[in-house]
Amino acid sequence: MHHDRRDFLRNAAAIAGGSLLARDAAAQAPRPGAAGRPPQGASRKKMTLSWRPFTAQLRDVFTVAVFSRSTTPIVLTEIAYDGLVGYGEASMPPYLGETQEGCIAFLSKVDLSKYRDPFELETILADVDAIAPGNPAAKAAVDIALHDLVGKLLGQPWYNIWGFPASRTPYTTFTIGIDTAEVVKRKTRQATGFKILKVKLGRENDHEMIEAIRSVTDVPLTADANQGWKDKQKVVDELHWLKERNVVVVEQPLAKDAPLDDVAWITERSPIPILADESCQRLADVRRHLGAVSGINIKLMKSTGMREAHKMVILARSLGMKVMLGCMTETSCGISAASHLSPMVDWADLDGALLISNDPFRGTTIVDGRVTLGPARGIGASLIV
To answer: Do the domains spanning 11-26+47-159 and 161-383 agree at the CATH topology level?
Structure first.
């Protein structure tokens, strides 16, 4: 019984995650005026949240199984406090249902002035989550900016606060969208330096896509069907064909609302790991997928931000599930925020900022195909325009 209780307390502490670590670290840190909490009796400083719409311009038309687009609507956020600013963003590909107007309407309901200081991450972000259902990207815009601010106040990057080794970051994929064979070959040739590529599938030209890439490179591939496949047996046949062409993992073969028994049937017969993406949004979805898939794809814009994504990584790992860390087409703000989780995952798909031509931030870099974390405080993103 005592051992069970110790195990429970240890696991509970692990799942509570970085937000509590941040508060503990803050409580023990020196308080030299502007760098820490206000001394007792001093005038209380307040956080202020601001935002602006932004449109990310894609370098090429981006096509997946269910849509094509050349831009992505984004809302950029800032939280100011005690002379510092934390940056965040909401990236909202139209197929997910969020809009700039809806995001701004949600953000207008967020009142950060009522909190003692930014270190109350768990309380603040739980309250933000409770404002209205849905709105995960809008919530992520607050979450990321708040984490950035807290990291700056602590004087540390978030991978240090969470205790993750920067030396263990994975290679990231570079994404090849659905297109003609000639365009696919061109994009593949342009992806020099990447040790692994991601290919979007789910239409009638899947084999043409793979063969076009294979005519240019033999690097490993990940494949994302984006809910585009239907028949279970045909899916299994396709997975065996992909395995022979060095595809190492496949995301979301069936619709997000497909019975998990059908997904499990495919996973049991698949020669390569199967990951849930669109069907696994938030923390509560992780355990629901246990036994049906090999692992999950975590994205800040689905999970409401860094707080919940961190919990999802810890829970998935404790359940023996594989983890991919993904993204939308985002600026280097969102990508930098996600990158702090990358030392804990099996695969990274953090190329979103590389796919846009008007990135307003500098942040996490990709060096020889690997996610490379820097020493900058917070999420490590700086505004350049």
So the answer is: no
Q: Give mean pLDDT in consecutive 10-residue pieces for the chain, a chain of 385 residues.
A: 40 40 38 38 76 95 70 97 97 92 98 96 98 98 98 98 97 93 94 95 92 97 94 96 98 96 98 97 98 98 98 98 97 98 98 96 96 97 91
Contacts 24+ apart (CB under 8 A), 208-216: 208/181, 209/176, 209/178, 209/179, 209/181, 209/184, 210/242, 210/245, 210/247, 211/181, 212/181, 212/182, 212/184, 212/185, 212/188, 213/176, 213/184, 213/185, 213/188, 214/245, 215/185, 216/185, 216/188, 216/189
Return the number of other C-beta atoms located less than 10 Å from residue 23's C-beta: 17
Token pair 């599930």 in the structure block, residue? 321
Amino acid at 252: Q
Query: Pairing mode, if any, of strands 174-176 and 84-91?
Result: unpaired
What SS3 state is found at 110?
coil
What are the DSSP calls for 147-209, one per residue?
Answer: HHHHHHHHTSBHHHHHT--GGGPPBBPEEE-S--HHHHHHHHHH-TT-S-EEEE--STTHHHH
* 161-383: CATH topology: TIM Barrel (3.20.20)
Q: Which residues contact residue 75 at a Cβ distance below 8 angstroms, ignoring those fewer than 6 apart?
A: 51, 52, 53, 54, 89, 90, 92, 100, 103, 104, 107, 138, 141
Residues 249/347, Cβ–Cβ less than 8 Å: yes
Whether domain 11-26+47-159 has CATH 3.30.390.10: yes
> Which of 255, 313, 260 lies closest to 286, judged by CA?
313
For the chain, domain boundaries: 11-26+47-159, 161-383
C-alpha span between 370 and 87 (Å, rounded): 24
pTM: 0.87
Assess contact for 188 and 217: CB atoms under 8 A.
Answer: yes
